[in-house]
Amino acid sequence: MSQFFVGVSAGSLPPSVPTSFTTDVGTVIPAANNVNLTGTDTNANNDNGIRVIANPTGSANMEVQLTNRITGIVTTDDISGQTATLVSLSLGGDPGVYFVEGSIVAYDVTDAAGAAYSFSGAATTDGENGTEISVESKDIFEQAAMETADFSLGVSGNTASITVTGVVGKEVHWSALFVYRFVG
Questions:
Q1: What secondary structure letter does DSSP report for 93?
Q2: Do 163 and 129 form a contact (C-beta atoms < 8 A)?
Q3: Could you tell me if 77 and 107 are in contact, meaning their C-beta atoms sit under 8 angstroms apart?
């Protein structure tokens, strides 16, 4: 039996393996030709709405982040209709204007009832103190058992936040997504 060998000096060479990946924030170096890619959301300000960062939890890790977002969950269950902060955003040290919008969903576990809300609002900051511009605009969708539930967008100090008010004697689970734009 004979063997035949053809040497390759050009043409169909095996592909090169990347030795690094440049991201929006840093460079990732593969470990054993492997890069771990994960996704998350962040309140970091980036008008593109997405960024890729290197090494968030180790040298061969890369993370894709949805930016300008805050999510939160909380449960209200106090007999008197507990108030709780659902999400908050520091307005930072740079003077400017924030436009915020988002959605909230609430589920009354006690009565198997629900509610959904959407909102938009605005705030200014001088870098130390924030001020809400007017009152938030909101759309309210509630079943009868949730009619006394409520939420508000407010500014205290230099922080914008969403506060929710539960229903007296009911366990209510809340979830929110809050997105923003900033110019300074």
A1: S
A2: no
A3: no
Domain boundaries, the chain: 1-67, 69-183
Is the separation of the CB atoms in 106 and 146 below 8 Å? yes
Residue 102 to residue 128: CA distance in whole angstroms: 24
Q: List the structure tokens of 165.
A: 């008010």
Segment 80-125, tens digit of pLDDT: 778 899 999 999 999 999 999 999 999 999 999 999 999 999 999 9
pTM: 0.81
CATH number of 69-183: 2.60.40
12 pLDDT more than 80: no
Q: Looking up tokens 């507990």, which residue turns up?
A: 82
> How many Cβ atoms from other residues are within 10 Å of residue 111's Cβ?
15
pLDDT band at 10 (very low <50, low <70, confident <90, very high): low
Rounded distance between C-alpha atoms, residue 119 and residue 125, angstroms: 20
